[in-house]
Design a protein that fits this description.
3 helices, disordered N terminus, 10-stranded antiparallel beta sheet, mainly beta, 417 residues, 9-stranded antiparallel beta sheet, 24 strands
């Protein structure tokens, strides 16, 4: 514990505060350390009710300049999988040690009773409050090409969708809808010096094979991504489309610049909500950032990924259930902070709150009454390899379905609400 504490101190104090003082001056640092967190989001699902069906090429700028070499996120190593010889997961949910932190629903109550559900639409929110301090990541790299080196981190909406091709060994896929926040200290237009940026990116991984994630890295069999069956960028609004195959899939949207505190990040993912060609299944990825009480800024719906069916499967859902996927990782619903990719970590000083909601009633998701908050939030995720330091997660006072964030040593494996 002493070693880990020293690492946190080095990243936060030396990496963040001293570097910010030297590079940006005391006034800029002061803008990052105002004390009172401010909640800017009220829990009403805006997407299905106020945003129409996505249209090709209409949601982001036509020029995409993100550093796509940093597009690979991904799962924990199979050697870290928390399962027994019987294929059952360890009873204490969430990772320990260096962890992704936030709110994760494992399908377990506080007493570890079952609470399974199968969403078709996921929505998650983060309100920053008026304080956000960044450390320097220990790996990966920033998607924003204008970001100060290493000054970036992610917030990931991760979940496992099943029955994509058919019920069985090749039906489990892990979807990542990721918002990466970065600090732009000195840059030129369209970037704005002394502000934050947000870049949305999706990853998809095949969790269908007990032998691991595409173990040969050459074939398109179990555990691999077959670009002949999985084709993205159907909206023409992101960069990638078939990138990363056969190991994984990615597509990255244009960077949103000139973000000031406080702001709200919204991520949403749905399957077949807007329909899909007969015999296919389609997953849609959505992301926005909203400054204070202003209007949400792009990209909106930035990717449609088409799974080209050959066996008539028509009803895939995400699965929140405390059972291992074939690859051995949990079927959970994560909304968690981590490093900027490649299994990296970072430290952040953040306040504000987190929320996640889901719906499984098809077109009836249009109505707020059919949305449900996750009811069993644990403080640490497990599936993603990225991790964070100094994010302490507790229930929000007098609000049942939100988590409050504090700047303190992580508290993994804690039941939040």
């Amino acid at each position: 514990m002493g070693e880990r504490r020293r690492l946190i101190t080095l990243v936060i104090v030396t990496g963040a505060i001293l570097a910010m003082v030297a590079s940006y001056g005391a006034a800029s640092l002061g803008a990052h350390t105002t004390a009172a967190p401010v909640a800017t989001h009220v829990a009403t699902p805006p997407l299905a009710s106020t945003v129409g069906a996505p249209t090709k090429g209409s949601t982001v700028a036509t020029t995409l300049s993100a550093n796509v070499q940093y597009a690979k996120f991904g799962p924990r190593l199979t050697t870290d999988v928390p399962r027994t010889d019987a294929g059952k997961l360890a009873q204490q949910p969430g990772c320990s040690g260096t962890c992704p932190m936030g709110i994760t629903d494992y399908g377990l109550t506080s007493t570890e009773g079952a609470a399974t559900y199968s969403p078709t639409f996921l929505q998650s929110y983060w309100d920053t409050g008026t304080t956000l301090g960044l450390g320097v990541a220990n790996g990966g790299g920033c998607l924003d090409p204008d970001a100060d080196s290493g000054y970036c981190f992610t917030l990931q909406q991760n979940a496992v969708i099943h029955d994509m091709f058919h019920t069985g060994s090749d039906g489990f896929y892990w979807t990542q809808n990721v918002a990466e926040m970065a600090y732009d200290g000195s840059c030129s237009s369209p970037c704005v010096s002394g502000t934050f940026s947000v870049t949305f990116i999706d990853n998809i991984w095949n969790f269908s094979y007990s032998g691991g994630i595409c173990p040969s890295d050459k074939n398109t069999g179990g555990g691999c991504i077959n670009p002949n069956k999985i084709a993205g960028n159907q909206l023409g609004a992101c960069d990638g489309g078939t990138g990363g195959a056969p190991d994984y899939y990615y597509c990255v949207a244009a960077t949103v610049y000139n973000i000031t505190l406080p702001f709200t990040v919204t991520a949403a993912t749905n399957v077949n909500y807007f329909g899909c060609a007969t015999g296919d299944n389609c997953v849609y990825f959505y992301g926005t950032v909203q400054k204070g009480l202003g209007s949400p800024q792009g990209p909106g719906y930035y990717d449609e990924v088409k799974f080209k069916m050959d066996d008539g499967a028509t009803a895939p859902t995400w699965q929140v259930k405390y059972v291992a996927t074939p690859v051995g990782l949990p079927q959970d619903f994560e909304w968690v902070f981590g490093g900027p990719g490649g299994g990296s970590g970072n430290a952040i000083e953040t306040f504000g709150d987190l929320q996640s909601e889901w719906c499984n009633s098809g077109s009836a998701c249009l109505y707020q009454t059919n949305w449900k908050s996750i009811k069993n939030a644990w403080s640490s995720g497990y599936d993603t390899a990225e991790y964070i330091y100094d994010v302490y997660v507790i229930p929000q006072f007098n609000f049942r379905d939100a988590a409050e964030l504090y700047f303190a040593a992580d508290n993994p494996q804690v039941y939040v609400f």
